[in-house]
Every structure is written in structure tokens, then in C-alpha cells.
Amino acid sequence: MFETVRDDLRATLDEIRAAGLHKPERVIGSPQSATVNVTAGGRPGEVLNFCANNYLGLADHPEVVAAAHEALDRWGYGMASVRFICGTQEVHKELEARLSAFLGQEDTILYSSCFDANGGVFETLLGEEDAVISDALNHASIIDGIRLCKARRFRYANRDLADLETKLKEATAGGARRKLIVTDGVFSMDGYVAPLGEICDLADRYDAMVMVDDSHAVGFVGPTGRGTPELHGVMDRVDIITGTLGKALGGASGGYVAARAEIVALLRQRSRPYLFSNTLAPVIAAASLKVLDLLESADDLRVRLTENTALFRRRMTDEGFDVLPGDHAIAPVMIGDAAQAARMAELLLERGVYVIGFSYPVVPQGQARIRVQLSAAHSTEDVNRAVDAFVAARAELAV
Question: In whole angstroms, what is the distance from residue 309 CA to residue 300 CA?
């Protein structure tokens, strides 16, 4: 049987390559940092890394690494089961309490990833008599999580408040018992920030709850890095915050839901990814506590990231590149054609700058781009070198 399937799969893979949509995976022989050792076409070399979610440069921070080493000695390697079966270590409870305080929520529950966190919320909270209203550009994990629940589904155009209100009216007219608005805090392909203040106003008007996936914001967005709710002054008005420990908060893995106490309590009893998947490794929990210590003790990393982002966006704009507007550390350089985006990424790698070309189905057809991600680990020289490499690659590609 599989021989027939094999031919079909190979044909599909050939179509992906022919369309310029193939996504190669690079092998890194070093820690995640501002520079990494990448093997490209059999040629190893150190390159500038502008494609990681390592926004604050903490993935190889010496204090975070030291905390991880200490945690291995104290807590061991893993829990070997789920928490309601094998018990909960103190380090997990401490991290949940620290995240709750940091995010201004009543309680927090840890997951093995934010994908799992988003996958465990909707089915637990919403039934057939409820409605979920989701931004059209929400992360795939939100889309998949919504598919698991039986609530009536509405989708509003990206950051379109008028369309959101229309969908809220429809849900209300349909007699929805509970209404949940869900949005990314920052949309990862564009770097656009959700208008949370206006969303919360609509939620108040139509008696809806608000959920925000703040994975690309917590740690560096907002005056003290508490994310988009802090940025918009609505920390007390957002009911559910999901996020990851795998981006700005150390870059490892793990996710969480920080929310009203009753929501978290129900998730502990009913959320399938929490109940049926091994808990977060204690070494990650302990290292994440050190990350929170660093964030709460100084703002130098956030300041450096802001400066690097502003420099890159300004220089790229001056050089005539089409960079989507904003001030987020995600800076998409629009190319349009998928094959050209992939080729430009290859040329940049040859010039010592590691970036990735994004194309369909990750982004819409005709909107291929190089998504550049700045980090506090980058120096001013690193940023300028990256811009110069873009200029040289564009000249060779003739776009």
C-alpha cells in the first residue's frame, strides 16, 4: 500500500520545491545567540542570526544557563508524567505564581508549549451554546484550538473593530451564552499590534471575555515588558493571557495560561493537553524564574532591543526596501514572489546573515517576505552589516 502513497507524497514534495515553497531546515552547531554556526550547502560558518525569537538575547545568557545547571542538580531532568498523577514540584508552583504577578492575573497554569495552551482553552470553556470571535490572522494554534470546541465560530478581519462589532452583534443575536474574543497580541508575520483598548471596550459593551496570545510581546513590549495589555493599559480587563517561555523569556520551550482564578481552576480539571501530556521540565521552570529576575531588575535589554529595531527599520526604509510599518522587533521585508524571497534568503546567508523567506501557506499568496527579527544581543555593527547585506543581495537578485 505505501508504495502508492510514496509516489503521491513525492509528487507533492516535488510540487512544493517547483513552486519555490520548500522550507529547508538549517543545522546549527552552536548555542542560539546573535551569531550562530550554520551548515549551509555543506559549508559551515559563523553567521549573524536575524531569524530567531530570541528577542532579549537570553537563550544563552550566562545567568540563565547557570540557573539551569543548578536546577538539574536540585530537581532532576524531568517529571516523567503529568502533574495530577506524579505530583507538582515546588519550582512549577513558584513559576506559576511569579507569572501571575508579572502579568497581573489571578492564577497561571503551565503547559509543555503555548500551542498546547491554546489547544486546551476553548474546548474547556466553550460549548455549543457559546461563541468564539477570532481575528483572521490569529496563530495556527488558536485556529486549531477553536476547531476542537463546539462553540459557534466567527472570524473578523485583522484588527478591524467595525467587523469585530458586527460579529459580536451576530453572536449576541444568536443567543450566545458566553462570548470570547480572541486575538494575538502581536501578529507574528506582520509585527502588527492588536488594538486591545478598543477590543476591551467592545467586550464590555457586548458582555464578552477577552483572550490574548501574547507570545511575541511578553518580556519586551510595554513599559516594563508585561506585554500588549500593559502597552494599552488594559491589564485588568483581559481575562485570559496565553504565552510561551520559548521566545523572549529564555527561548527554551513551555507555555502558560494566565487568567481569572476560576478559569485556571477549571483548566486544571478539564484541559486535555494539561491532563494528558508531560509537564514542563523543571530545568526550564527554574531558568524561567531567573529570566523573570533579570526582567524585573533592569530594563537595559528592552532598551537595546528598541534601539536595534529602530536602527534596522530606519536604514532599510532609507535604502528603499518595503518594510511593513511599526516599531516591533519583527520587521517583515516584503518581496512578493515566493521564489525570489527564498533566493534572497540564500544570498543573504552567503553574505553571513541568517534569515528565512516566508511564503504560502505561512503567509498569503503573493505576500512572500523575509521576516527579520531583531534581538538585544545584536550590536549596532551587526544591524548595519545586515542592512548592507540586504542591499548587496538585492543588487545580485535584481529586484
Answer: 14
Spatial distance between the Cα atoms of 289 and 92, rounded to a whole number of angstroms = 10
Q: What is the side-by-side strand order in the sheet with 357-358?
A: 330-336, 368-373, 357-358
Return d(Cα 52, Cα 29) in angstroms, integer: 15
d(CA 48, CA 388): 13
Q: Tens place of pLDDT for every residue, the chain, 399 residues?
A: 788 899 899 999 998 888 767 777 888 888 899 999 987 555 558 999 999 999 999 999 999 999 999 999 999 999 888 988 887 899 999 999 999 999 999 999 999 999 999 999 999 999 999 999 999 999 999 999 999 999 999 999 999 999 999 999 999 999 999 999 999 999 999 999 999 999 999 999 999 999 999 999 999 999 999 999 999 999 999 999 999 999 999 999 999 999 999 999 999 999 999 999 999 999 999 999 999 999 999 999 999 999 999 999 999 999 999 999 999 999 999 999 988 998 999 999 999 999 999 888 788 889 999 999 999 999 999 999 999 999 999 999 886
Q: Please, what's the b/e burial string for 193-223 (b: 16 or more CB within 10 A of its CB; e: otherwise)?
A: bbbbeebbebbeebebbbbbbbbbbbbbbbe
Residues 287 and 68: beta-carbon distance below 8 Å = yes
Per DSSP, the three-state class of 361 is: coil
3-class DSSP state for residue 75?
helix
If you write DSSP's letter for every residue of 28-43 in order, what string do you get? E-S-SSSEEEEEETTE
DSSP assignment, residue 323?
B
Q: Helices (H), strands (E): how many in the chain?
A: 15, 16
Q: What's the rounded Cα separation, in Å, for the pair 340 and 388?
A: 18
Active-site residues: which are they? Answer: 188, 216, 247
